[in-house]
Amino acid sequence: MQKFCSKKYNILYPYKKKLYLNITNRCPIKCSYCIKYKWQWKFRSHYLKLAKEPSFKEIILLLSKYNINKYKEIVFCGYGEPFMRFYLLKKVAQWIKKNYPKTKIRVNTNGLGNVINKQNVCKSLNKIIDTISVSFNAHNETVYSKLHKTKISRPLQKIIGFIKNCKKYVNNVTITTIQHPLIDKEKIKSTAKKLGVNFRNRKYLNQYEPK
Ligand code: SF4
């Protein structure tokens, strides 16, 4: 845990037998339901506002303090979009796979990694990332733009392209949605079916939950 002002912030934290990596707070979209704002940068008692983005060395040092084999999975998640730091993500995942080949690695993403990096990042995920979980959170572009602020045009179309690409290189691809009155969950479920990926419903988080 590192110090930020008077608060200690987390780059790596355990939660439900998994280890979570919070590598950036940057994000190319602003979701109306994002809990980093609602929960004032806290997540289940972990404070996730980074004073500075961690380097590869810092992350490895932190990972080395844990008995990695004890954890079911390592998840790139945190309060920011992990693909904002694609090269670092790749380097850390390669290191984990080299040193702990049995450890599963997941990336939770908004699905805009290819747009952010102006390249097909999915190709590089082959053999280093086991699961990609994409927050879909809208059944069409109109609903998407109501719930998300972004400069990216036709984001949902780009997210679908990302999912199709990920399918070629990553074993498990899941799309998720929160339960929200504007979102038609059934339509997203059938999109998942058409794309041949898994679907998972997520709880809509509002009030702060410390555990
Ligand atoms: S993509 Fe994630 S981190 Fe970015 S604003 Fe949305 S919920 Fe928050």
Can you characterise this structure?
This protein has 211 residues and is of the alpha/beta class. The protein has helices at 35-38, 56-63, 86-99, 113-117, 141-147, 155-169, 185-195, and strands at residues 2-4, 7-9, 12-15, 18-21, 29-31, 42-43, 46-47, 73-76, 104-109, 131-135, 148-150, 172-178, 198-202. The strands form four sheets. The protein has a seven-stranded mixed β-sheet with strand order 3-4-8-9-10-12-13. Helix 4 (113-117) links the parallel strand 9 and strand 10. It is globular. The structure holds iron/sulfur cluster (SF4). The site of iron/sulfur cluster has 10 residues, from strand 5.
Short description:
Helix content is 30%, strand content 24%. The protein is α/β, with parallel strands linked by helices. The chain has a single domain, classed as Aldolase class I (TIM Barrel), CATH 3.20.20.70.
Distance between the termini: 19 Å
Listed once per kind, the bound small molecules are:
iron/sulfur cluster
Spans of at least 5 consecutive residues with low confidence: none
Shape-level CATH architecture: Alpha-Beta Barrel
Range of helix content: 25-40%
User: What does the radius of gyration come to?
Assistant: 17 Å
Task: List SSEs in N-to-C order.
Answer: EEEEEHEEHEHEHEHEHEHE
Q: In CATH terms, what is the fold-level topology? A: TIM Barrel
Shape: globular
Tally of structural domains:
1
- What average pLDDT do the residues reach? 93
Largest sheet descriptor: 7 strands, mixed
CATH class: Alpha Beta
Provide the β-strand percentage band: 15-25%
